[in-house]
Structures are given as structure tokens and as C-alpha cells.
């Protein structure tokens, strides 16, 4: 059995890792952006981001003061699990006090702060899988970027061009608010809620890797090119790189609809994954 304590310890370590250490694919994308950047101000901003990443690892402190809303994706296999949600909550609470993390979670009406464990928070998404393990992925989602997400319940007649236009429009409308260079996650299909969930899951893919579907891969590259061609640049202050990547996932939907969920992520595209197996 996978115990509550194992889950707590795993979530604690994942949150700590995600908050402090940025994945190599994102760091490489930022370094590549610096090499391409011909704006002095753009270069200055990317250099500051890279220095920030270096200092966070060196000093073992979070790379951003907004340590995010705790979102955990769970792939639940055919293994016995003890008190799954309780273990997740305890892991988040421990990370909040010991890393430490900023207590971000509040009641939406009263604004009373509950730390990072509150009513239905941490947010947990469970996917059932036919495997002999449980996989946890934590995504600390900052709200400088989250506040720029968008949903469009498009008509099928708008087609691929309509999808691409909405993705680009949403990314450019965000301007400097989400601390670009951004990563753009896009979900197409499903229902309104599923489109946005897919957009978040798209952000879990490696920056620079293309969707295996050639049509989707082409859409990703075209949207990325159009976003960067605008020239908003790092921190919205001008330059060649407004977005590091565009990642798209799709699922089937109703014949009368074309839901499009666009999820904006700042340069700190943070997530960490671990698996637990039944001993």
C-alpha cells in the first residue's frame, strides 16, 4: 500500500523542487532566447531572469515570490492508496511552512487567508490509468499569468484559423502582465472546463517538443511565430521573444462546438513529477 506519509513526503519534495529548480528545457529555451535577442532591454531582462534562476538554486529559495496556487495532477493506477487527499494536503502544508512558500490561498469572498490549504485547495485532478503506480505532478500556478487565461466557445465554422487567431490574440492581449517570455498552453475540444484543463496539461510538456500530430505541431509553430513577430518581448518591454513556446492538446467535442482554452504561463514554467509504487 502507498501510505499517507509517502504521499505527504512526495508532495512536499515536489513542491520544493518545483518552486526552487526550473526544468532544464525551460532554462535552455531562455538561454536560446538570449542568444537571439537583439534588443538591449530584452537581453537585460532575460539575463536578469537567468541570474534569478541561478540564485534560487544556489540559495535554495523559491525563484518567484508568487509560489502559486497548488495544482496536483494525479495518475492513479491499480494500487491501494491510503488517504490520498489528506496526504496531498499535508504535503502542501509542510512545504508552505518549511520551504517556505508564500501563503496564497484565500476565500474568494471574504479574502480570509487559509495558507495554501483551504476549501477544495489544493486542486487535485485524478486520471485513472491501467498501471501499477501512482504518479504525482505538481504545478504551482502563479496568478500574474493565470489572470490572463481565456476561454472561447467558438463555432465549428471558425475552424483552425479561428483557433490560431484566438491563441495569438490572447497571448498578445496579456502584454507584460504575465512576465514574458511566456509559455502558452492551449486546449481544444471537450467542454468549456475541459478545454482550460487541457490547456494546463499542455504546459506539462517539454518546451521545444512538438505535438506528434503534424497538424497540431504546425499550429503550435505558427502561433509561436505570430506571437513573437509582434515584438512585445521580455517583460513586455520590447524584443524578439514574447513566448518561449506554444503547446496544444486536443480532445473530441460536441458536433456543435469548438471550445478553445488558452492558459498563459510566465517564464517560470514550474512543475515536478514523481511516481510511487506499491511495495
TrEMBL record:
Keywords: 4Fe-4S, Iron, Iron-sulfur, Lyase, Metal-binding. Pfam families: Fumerase (PF05681). It comes from the Archaea. One of its GO terms (molecular function) is 4 iron, 4 sulfur cluster binding. Residues 9-274 form the Fe-S hydro-lyase tartrate dehydratase alpha-type catalytic domain. The keyword Protein biosynthesis does not apply. Its EC number is 4.2.1.2. The keyword Iron applies. It is an enzyme of class 4 (lyase). Coiled coil: none annotated. NCBIfam families: PRK06246.1, ttdA_fumA_fumB. Belongs to the class-I fumarase family. This is Fumarate hydratase.
